[in-house]
Specification:
By secondary structure, the chain is α+β, with helices and mostly antiparallel strands. The chain contains 9 helices and 13 strands. The chain folds into 2 domains: 90 residues, Rieske [2Fe-2S] iron-sulphur domain (Rieske Iron-sulfur Protein); 153 residues, Naphthalene 1,2-dioxygenase Alpha Subunit, Chain A, domain 1 (Alpha-Beta Complex), CATH 3.90.380. Bound molecules: fe (ii) ion.
């Protein structure tokens, strides 16, 4: 299906029925397609919106191209506008990731890479145990929606993250043209099972302040959940769109400040959580492509989720009209330490 067909489906009158996460294809953004540590001299293949990205190193420097290095010469005529016909994508290394520009290479600037305040920018010293890759059988925006929708975690992940028991649970959110920030403040929440088992938290209750900061164009989700008593578990979940039914997430659960053995084991919990999420996402994503099904099962009462759709639709419409610029209210490199409520 070409972009025009996608656009036509997306612009049909029934907006609610027409929210098809897999058809959203936002450009002019950096995707963290791989961990820096995974890229060596042997070429590695990644896929962004069904498009090949080959990564490898030359004298230590990372390269990203549309074809395998040994085929670059012979395939050069097939290069696309994404590389300006050069076969080579614009590429940067930061925060332990290789970031590849998806869009018009003339608009690629390193200062459009989102700032992740708790990770060392040069990636130095990020332990491998904090890095875990998972895949979802769903388009990236559907996974992001699932993450935004807090009501799912308390029942879907009750055995690891915890049940919904608390004294007070307040959710607030705000947005710009490029980001959505959701803050959840929970008072006297039952201590998460993982923190009791391996996290050294002996108390029965703890307070939680969890901030989720979503960069809309590249589905980069930056989370800062902070527990008292306890600690913060800052994490990054970049939902890289592989295709309409697949996303790849090279997570960084930056548990380095948590006590052992929680520090090492917590990042592995994604292997428990991922199948729980996927069991919901996989059938839901398929529904969007089956006209006979009731496509949309999302809650109308999920206000941050609804805002997310509005913002994504707006961005998609702007891009369809040829406007790929970042608005005056948008600065991906903005220091979000205060927004995340980072502990000093
Ligand atoms: Fe989940």
């Amino acid at each position: 299906m070409n972009m025009d067909d996608k656009a036509a489906r997306f612009a049909a009158p029934d907006a609610k029925r027409d929210w098809i996460p897999g058809n959203i294809d936002l450009r002019d953004t950096w995707f963290p397609v791989a961990y820096s540590a995974d890229v060596g001299n042997r070429p590695l293949r990644r896929i962004v919106h069904a498009q090949d990205v080959y990564l490898w190193r030359e004298l230590g420097r990372v390269r990203a191209a549309e074809f395998r290095p040994d085929l670059l010469e012979s395939r050069r005529a097939g290069a696309t506008a994404f590389t300006g016909g050069s076969c080579y994508y614009r590429v940067h290394e930061r925060y332990g990731y290789v970031w590849v520009w998806y869009g018009n290479p003339d608009n690629a600037h390193a200062d459009l890479i989102p700032l992740i305040p708790f990770l060392p920018a040069d990636g130095a010293g990020i332990p491998r145990y904090t890095q875990r890759s998972v895949r979802f059988d769903a388009a990236s925006p559907l996974s992001v929606e699932n993450l935004i929708d807090l009501t799912h975690a308390d029942f879907l992940h009750a055995n690891t993250i915890g049940d919904g028991q608390s004294e007070r649970d307040v959710v607030e959110f705000s947005s710009t043209s490029e980001t959505l920030t959701r803050t959840r403040i929970v008072t006297r929440k039952s201590v998460a099972p993982v923190m009791r088992w391996i996290g050294g938290v002996r108390a029965q209750y703890q307070d939680l302040r969890a901030v989720l900061h979503v960069h809309l164009r590249n589905n980069l989700c930056i989370s800062y959940p902070s527990f008292t008593p306890g600690y913060a578990i800052p994490n990054v979940q970049p939902f890289v769109p592989v295709g309409k039914h697949r996303s790849r997430v090279d997570q960084t659960n930056y548990t380095v400040h948590a006590p052992a053995p929680f520090r090492w084991l917590m990042p592995r919990i994604s292997y428990v959580i991922q199948p729980q999420d996927n069991s919901v996402l996989r059938p839901q994503n398929a529904r969007y492509f089956d006209p006979g099904q009731r496509r949309d099962l999302s809650s109308r009462f999920d206000a941050p989720g609804n805002r997310y759709r509005v913002l994504m639709t707006r961005l998609a419409e702007r891009q369809r009209a040829g406007d790929f610029g970042y608005g005056a209210d948008a600065d991906p490199a903005q220091d979000i330490s205060a927004i995340l409520g980072m502990r000093p």
